[in-house]
Specification:
Elements (H helix, E strand, L loop, with lengths): L1 E9 L10 E10 L2 E10 L8 H7 L3 H4 L5 H12 L3 E4 L2 H14 L10 E3 H8 L7 H7 L12 H15 L17 H11 L9 H14 L7
Parallel strand pairs: 1-4, 4-5
Antiparallel strand pairs: 1-2, 2-3
């Protein structure tokens, strides 16, 4: 099964105040294993970023001024997520912004029935507990030390690990640095902004072993 881990960053908290998306990150999964396919873009929101949002992600109006508008990347984004389950943490937030952007350019909105909200899963498994992305990383001993600021691709990689743990599938420990699986050009771009390092990718044999492990250990199905 193909899935997409998705995260956005925005100019503010509410579409009622006409806030917009400034970054979209997506990592494709096949049977819970990240493929080499990613979608990542910064966006010119055509409005000012709120001071509160700047404190969260650190992006500035100047940095985004020469980026494409959502309308210019919409078709590529839609093609990337087509026919895939979409995994989002706190889906109501990201979906409201994505569907707002799609509505502005007369595109079909994303159906919530095609979305898995990891926040909802976490609340069912740990009622009354802290279920933010950072709290879940702590619960599952996932290293989130690079998350000094919120960035879409880094948050997607952390959410991928959280998602696997929420499904009860423990990954075998490979001797590699766990970061976002991205191509060299994007890796260089992000390194300048977020201090991310390149990773050593697992071999084909390791991926096959990992795939077989996940298939054999899956106990619950969240896709019905």
């Amino acid at each position: 099964m193909l899935e997409v881990i998705l995260d956005t960053e925005t100019t503010g908290l509410s579409i009622k105040e006409n806030h917009r998306i400034i970054e979209i990150g997506c990592i494709e999964l096949k049977d819970q294993i990240a493929t080499k396919n990613i979608f990542h873009t910064y966006l010119n929101p055509q409005r000012k970023i709120s001071e509160e949002a700047k404190k969260v992600h650190g992006y500035t109006d100047k940095f985004l001024s020469d980026k494409k508008s959502f309308s210019k990347i919409a078709d590529d984004f839609i093609d990337f997520i087509r026919d895939k389950k979409i995994i989002i943490h706190n889906a109501d937030f990201d979906l409201s912004f994505l569907n707002y952007e799609l509505k502005l350019i007369n595109k079909k909105e994303i159906d919530k029935r095609n979305v898995i909200d990891t926040l909802e899963i976490a609340r069912q498994k740990y009622p009354g507990g802290q279920n933010s992305l950072d709290a879940l990383c702590k619960r599952f001993n996932i290293n989130n030390s690079k998350r000094e600021k919120h960035t879409a691709l880094l948050d997607c990689e952390l959410l991928r690990e959280v998602y696997i743990n929420l499904l009860g599938q423990k990954e075998p420990k490979l001797n590699l640095e766990r970061n976002v699986i991205i191509d060299n050009k994007l890796n260089d771009n992000l390194s300048k902004n977020n201090n991310l390092r390149k990773i050593i990718k697992p071999s084909e044999d390791e991926l096959k072993l990992h795939h077989n492990y996940l298939k054999s250990s899956l106990k619950k199905n969240y896709y019905n």
